[in-house]
Q: What sequence folds into this?
């Protein structure tokens, strides 16, 4: 049930009236094969933050809970297991395309009240995302600006993205998975109170840029990709535009320090959400191969 | 605290007295870079089964629970999230090296009572596994045997593994991640009662084979990798030997049908466990690039 | 913000425009003291069903989950604890007055969208119910009808309630907590498939009766107090009228067999919900003293 | 399998070699009927603290988690429910007799390794406690000592209990449920850091007193009934003696201020644990009728 989005920058209908996958449609085998060619040294990076009660988490959400159960019969084989209670949007995680809506419409015009209930989502859910695999492009804004981290409320514009890419000597390509480094994850460790007031991040000037460049995902080392300076933020316009209008994927709470230290600007990036049937998102452990 | 395992087939001490990573030590950048060269067409496969209450699960464990929460204020942006309660050993998942012990010792001689408690594990936990990346080698035993699936209690021996590889025209290499296809996952769908009685799988004759070939992981389309025919199984000797003695990783409940249909015998395989601090395992969504 | 309910049978405004407690307002100290006088022998009955995965539960809800954690250091004191994941509406439980609404209004006219969110309820929540204590009146419909249990879809009318009381030689009094026995809990054990198709229970003719008699609560040995014969029921009119219009409390999944066997028609009844801040209901273990 | 406890103060075997109920055996119908006679005014008190993430909780345990799910179809009846994840030992709660052991033995000599596993307890579990009903006896130590609250690490001795009772003009009776008021719950609100360092409470001199008086339960307004001054406490000797040796019930984190303000020294006390099959304890909302 695809309807014309009133918003000028939209991908609705681009991949058909019944599409639920959004920009995943751009990740062709040819693109993946080219990205695999970026693996030069075989060095592998995990880009996740620890998944634990004290890990990065939107402050109003419950903390991640894990307890361990075990059996240790004296003369036999013993074994252990865990029980985990968590929000799917916990720690390093990605949003499904049903995560955000306005005017009661999801990406590609689906009706929110019809398709999102306590049981889960019947359109645009995380199990429509078996994987996100492609060229990871690191835009290390913090290093480009010569700082340890950007400031609270500091906006990253489309012009900043271009300038940073140019400074790094890389070209943005269609199908890219942007790895955006603000340095803000350092504040998670050093000043939790400041961390929970907002963040630096991209602003709405990047929305046309995301569409023009056919970006598939934006993965950042902050809580919500976009800039805001009060908690809770009165609005998250980039979320609304990227997810709901463009069908672009957002992945939050990454740790990009190792990639940046090695100046790995291009990589084969593999993101593998848990196949939670009807789910609204998933914790992830993004893997970069360089 | 490394002690000589009484068992003849062991990797204890091989990577040092304080090693907690086991066979991950074999996944060198050179090996990863060679594996990336296996990506010929860019076709990508997710090898996971759905993660949901009705997904594959050891029958005595609680089912995976997901409920969705949402906010839909009439004139504003709405959003949703999930709350998930699950065992870390749920659906398609991998075991950490602290999952199994005997004689109160974990892999590499660590004391179980000292290191595994309700709070979690302080040695050999899943957060010691930032990723498993290497050459995935599909051994499609079912197709080799000309059947849809092996039978309950049917053992796969070391000789079978060699013969299957030969029949497929592939060579087992050090550092391989074996993708073992029994066809048993079909029974999960077609005969749940039979499925819960046991399974076909590898037997103890494969233990020296795993060591001799320096296999890093065995990933199978059954519940527990190894053969057994009563539930619960009185013992799981392959688990004990592979995990506790060899530091080999076991990944269970995969779906290998698509790989098998396309005869993808070699691939770049990426397994990215959730970084659950102190955890005993993790659900995973293994990704194969061919 | 109290508005006149369009429904003729209503308690809105009766206890003030800002009331959130509904019929609890009728449980005066005098009434409680009289009920305490009903304790003749000191025999005590727990009226709950087991709270466990296989206990009575609305079929579309996740089952109750409990795992036990423990510490058993060899030479020291050991201890254990549990982790429980459950719906508040699990097993024997009671509904808060915010559980049901229509026309976007809760009991006493409160706006549902304003007061019920994923965070919980800010009006009519379970923590407004520190206790329900009063005269428990057993109406053993099954025994009165000479059957082990009423039939699927069999309605209990206001006339039935009166006739049963008369046959038992008891008088309904203002402030009573009705203990309604249908025998349907036997079907939970003997025919789960039938049990999940619906139930016998009270019908809408009892709504004016509940108001006329100033009943505070209806506690029954079925899943939903009221009669229905398809799952899920297209509507639950007694829920809507009792909870939302009258501010009457519903308590479900009781076991009333022991009370009935001893012909305990009157008792001091104590129901103590868990004080879940903002909660929509609570598991309970109702205690009858005779 | 009852064995003679080496400890001199013990109730093992007193109610038979297979007893699992401990002092509940003392709550006879006659005792309950006498306690019902204590209801003079019909005023009812809930003695629980709020059950929520920020409620009283042993600091090393995960906080209580509740999220609300709901359905609000525009033209129909809407409803809500909660999902709760919690420790059974959360907020105001009681310990089952399997909660504590030493020398690998539970109350009445049962083997801990045999009877307590990750699945739960098969002896002395909370579902052996359908209710605790009897005479509640308030010993308001804080008021007797003329203070708002006792100090961190301040011990309450057997002599103190006797003196307080005398000062209040009450007599301790066999089968009593002691309501012990230290005032320490005020510190939960006013100085959380101090609160988490330990508490005032009873010391081991009260163990023979508990047995001599045939006390069934001790319910206190602190975290662990007994005195300690470091967190975590190296031992909890009152827990070990009361629960494991005497089969006495401990109920923690009560709010006794209202009872104390009204000088309600005697009451009918009703404690109704959730019937968690195999559970190690339960949150409770104790109800006092005066």
A:
């Amino acid at each position: 049930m695809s309807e014309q989005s009133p918003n000028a920058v939209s991908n609705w209908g681009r991949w058909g009236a019944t599409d639920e996958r959004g920009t995943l449609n751009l990740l062709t085998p040819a693109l993946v094969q080219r990205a695999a060619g970026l693996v030069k040294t075989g060095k592998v990076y995990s880009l996740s933050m620890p998944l634990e009660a004290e890990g990065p988490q939107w402050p109003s959400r419950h903390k991640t809970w894990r307890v361990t159960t075990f059996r240790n019969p004296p003369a036999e084989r013993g074994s252990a297991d865990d029980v985990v209670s968590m929000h799917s949007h916990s720690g390093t995680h990605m949003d499904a395309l049903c995560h955000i809506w306005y005017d009661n419409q999801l990406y590609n015009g689906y009706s929110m009240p019809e398709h999102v209930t306590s049981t889960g989502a019947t359109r645009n859910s995380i199990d429509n995302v078996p994987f996100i695999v492609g060229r990871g492009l690191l835009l290390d804004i913090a290093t480009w600006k010569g700082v340890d981290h950007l400031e609270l409320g500091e906006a990253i514009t489309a012009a900043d993205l271009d300038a940073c890419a140019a400074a790094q000597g890389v070209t943005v390509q269609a199908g890219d998975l942007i790895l955006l480094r603000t340095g803000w994850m350092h504040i998670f460790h050093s000043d939790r109170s400041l961390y929970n007031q907002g963040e630096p991040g991209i602003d709405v000037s990047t929305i046309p840029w995301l569409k023009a460049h056919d970006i598939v995902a934006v993965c950042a080392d902050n809580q919500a990709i976009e800039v805001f300076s009060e908690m809770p933020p009165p609005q998250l316009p980039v979320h609304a535009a990227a997810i709901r209008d463009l069908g672009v994927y957002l992945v939050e709470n990454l740790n990009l320090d190792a990639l940046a230290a090695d100046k790995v600007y291009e990589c084969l990036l593999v993101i593998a959400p848990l196949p939670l049937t009807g789910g609204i998102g998933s914790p992830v452990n993004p893997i970069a191969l360089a």
Chain C is about 20% helix and 25% strand. The CA atoms of residues 95 and 281 of chain C lie 4 Å apart. Residues 158-168 of chain C form the longest helix (11 residues).
